[in-house]
Specification:
The protein has five helices and twelve strands. It is of the alpha+beta class. Bound molecules: zinc ion.
């Protein structure tokens, strides 16, 4: 006999006051518990009791997108050392453990596949700027599909997988004492073609060497999973990094525009950010974290990564 899986539906209303402001943030949160997972969403409204203005934040989202609190989306990473793979396991979160956006986590991100804008603490300075930034990413996804970050990450993952296969084959060739001609015939011929299709060139003699100073147009790729590095040449990769940077900058610029527009309409979502340098301080902190993340993945001789510099 089949036992029907049990689903529990939870809902709650939270009102949090924004720091140094009269704004009230109203969150109507739904949470569905099922199969050791949960699925949450929230409806966000800003109310200014002084001017009696209300803003329904859903109106700023592309069609089908919804908000969700970061604290209600928790995952666990499991690393399988033998298979060298990473598994993402969702953890079930009960709505009873959520106390509203105030003092919640610092996470803001956009999930194109599940059409969600995930938010952290909106009551803090910079909270709404971050939210508007993620909303801009949602619009970028709607209009450009696979632009910037996702293209870069997909390319990087494909490339490191390929390079690790060649590196492993090189070790096998040494153990079995293959001649350079045999290695070329058995391994490199096919691999070089496939890399060329991706827009990547390698010189297999030096590609796993520990080289400190890169030559003209060379790029070092750090494989963060296997903790090793490879040397390649790829104009395509430089292009993907440039797109990624541009997408981030555009999303911040757009976020500022929306906040200024709302200010003119009588809703100030960032009362603590007054001057351009107030905005820049928050934005540079975020861009700098991308900068550091990318510097862990690649080092280029010609193209400097410049998210934050
Ligand atoms: Zn971003």
């Amino acid at each position: 006999m089949e036992i029907k899986e049990k689903k529990i539906f939870q809902k709650a209303l939270y009102r949090s006051k924004q720091e140094k402001s009269h704004n009230l943030i109203e969150e109507r949160v739904n949470n569905l518990l099922f199969k050791e997972k949960n699925l949450s969403s929230s409806y966000l409204i800003i109310i200014n009791p002084e001017t009696k203005t209300r803003l329904d934040l859903q109106e700023l989202l592309p069609k089908n997108f919804i908000f969700a609190p970061a604290e209600l989306r928790q995952i666990e990473y499991l690393i399988d050392k033998e298979k060298k793979s990473l598994q993402i396991i969702p953890i079930q979160v009960n709505l009873n453990s959520y106390h509203g956006t105030k003092n919640s986590t610092d996470d803001f991100y956009e999930m194109p596949l599940s059409a969600r804008i995930v938010y952290g603490d909106l009551t803090k300075k910079g909270g709404f700027l971050s939210l508007m930034h993620e909303i801009s990413h949602a619009w970028q996804d709607v209009y450009y599909e696979n632009f910037g970050q996702s293209n870069f990450e997909e390319f990087y993952n494909q490339l490191t997988t390929k390079l690790s296969i060649i590196a492993a084959a090189k070790e096998t060739a040494q153990e079995r004492k293959w001649s350079p001609e045999e290695f070329e015939e058995i391994v490199m011929k096919g691999q070089r073609e496939e890399l060329k299709d991706m827009g990547v060139e390698i010189d297999e003699k030096i590609f796993t060497e520990e080289i400190k100073t890169l030559k003209e147009s060379e790029t070092k790729i750090f494989d963060t999973t296997l903790k090793r590095s490879y040397i390649i040449k790829s104009e395509k990769l430089n292009q993907l990094v440039a797109d990624y940077e541009r997408q981030e900058r555009d999303a911040w610029a757009h976020a500022i525009k929306v906040l200024k527009f709302l200010r003119k309409k009588g809703i100030d979502l960032e009362p603590q950010l007054k001057t351009l340098s107030d905005f820049k301080e928050i934005i540079y902190r975020c861009l700098d974290s991308y900068q550091k993340l990318l510097e862990k993945m690649i080092e280029s001789s010609t193209k400097k990564i410049r998210f934050a510099r």
